[in-house]
Amino acid sequence: MTSYTQVILKKGKEEPVLRFHPWIFSGAIKEIRGKFEEGDIAEVFSQEGNYLATGYLLSGSITIKLFSFTQQEIDKKFWKSKLETAYRLRQDLGLVGSKSTNTYRLVHNEGDSMPGLIVDIYDSLAVIQAHSVGMYLLREILADSIRSIYGKKITAIYDKSAESLRKMTGFKTEDGFLLGGGSNFEVKENGNQFMIDPAAGQKTGFFLDQRENRQLIARYANSRNVLNMFGYTGGFSVYAAHAGASLVHTVDSSAPAIETARRNMVLNRFDPEQNACFVADARQYLETMDADRYDLMVLDPPAFAKNMDSRRQALKGYRAINAAALKKIKARGILFTFSCSQVVDRQMFTSAVTAAAIDAGRKVQILHHLSQPPDHPINIFHQEGEYLKGLVLRVE
């Protein structure tokens, strides 16, 4: 068996590992034996010498992310088995081979016991995004395993790790295809059609975590005037238009995103005049638009808080943007509002929206509590993985 770097924990610090939490912080470590580099595989032992888990090393306060609690060889067979387990879950969810949806998340970080890794499937394209050097070093093995599992159904694999690695670790690399090539891939989601560009798009090209929440908007959109704020490439907009909305307006500060939103409207055969897309600042648009113009709004901003230090300011941001929307929405209107900030928990977000309702002086009812779909699973031992929070509100 391969010899890995050995990490010895301080006495009493093994308890979180015994409860299968996948993170080990620097303060829990007594000793790292031998030379090592970021991304190296390490085996973790208690001070008494008992094996606990295996993971990879990182720089920063989280020093090890764990992917196995069984001592074994970490080779290509190991990683293929991990991907096969993730694949079987998506089969059980009815996503693999679905006639109406050919895009979904195959690997979701700690939720699939592969921390630091995202793999999204866009029909014949797989996009790999590593958030850690440890996972990035495995990209060729992961790509080979994906090809083995999917066969000829996957014709292109794109590595989109550069930006996240640079921001999180300073590690410099370039994005690019590991297999095949192309751009502007067309996919289906619940029968709706979207154009995906893995190179130019945000995240891996599309926000797959809103699939079921986009489906829910169909229950409310018929005959309503819809405003999709932070609309990106128009996911909620296309669903609302299909559900019979009287008009749909999409607003985002990114000109390329708005251009793709227009293309998605045309792709789904909707009138681009009736369903217009605007490049504008969200806060300014809300403050200057006419009151009672819209009776269904979607607020799906980017993460306002990337870390604990920015959480307080993020909560102020959520309060302000929701107050602005609640002041302008038509009576008996519906507001879909979201936070994707991992460090802002569900109660904090709900409290911020409650404060916004007070600021707006409107009576508000909660109709739904929303989260991420099951192809973005949450490891029960790592509940920090529940990052997407949402509310559907009815405003008197």
Architecture overview:
With 396 residues, the chain is α/β, with parallel strands linked by helices. The chain folds into 3 domains: 5-68, PUA domain (Archaeosine Trna-guanine Transglycosylase, Chain: A, domain 4, Roll); 76-190, 2-Layer Sandwich (Transcription Regulator spoIIAA), CATH 3.30.750.80; 207-395, 3-Layer(aba) Sandwich (Rossmann fold), CATH 3.40.50. The protein is 30% helix and 27% strand. It is built from 11 helices and 20 strands. The protein has helices at 15-18, 76-92, 133-136, 139-150, 162-169, 211-221, 235-242, 255-267, 282-288, 311-328, 346-360, and strands at residues 5-9, 23-25, 29-33, 41-45, 51-57, 62-68, 103-108, 117-122, 125-130, 156-159, 176-179, 185-189, 192-196, 225-229, 247-252, 277-279, 296-299, 333-339, 364-370, 389-395. The strands form 4 sheets. Strands 16-15-14-17-18-20-19 form a 7-stranded mixed beta sheet, with helices on both faces. Strands 2-6-5-4-1-3 form a 6-stranded mixed beta sheet. The chain has a 5-stranded mixed beta sheet with strand order 7-8-9-10-11, with helices on both faces. A hairpin with a 4-residue loop joins strand 5 (51-57) and strand 6 (62-68). The longest helix is centred in the last third of the chain and has 18 residues, at 311-328. The protein is globular, with a radius of gyration of 22 Å. 43% of the residues are buried. The model has no long low-confidence stretch (mean pLDDT 95).
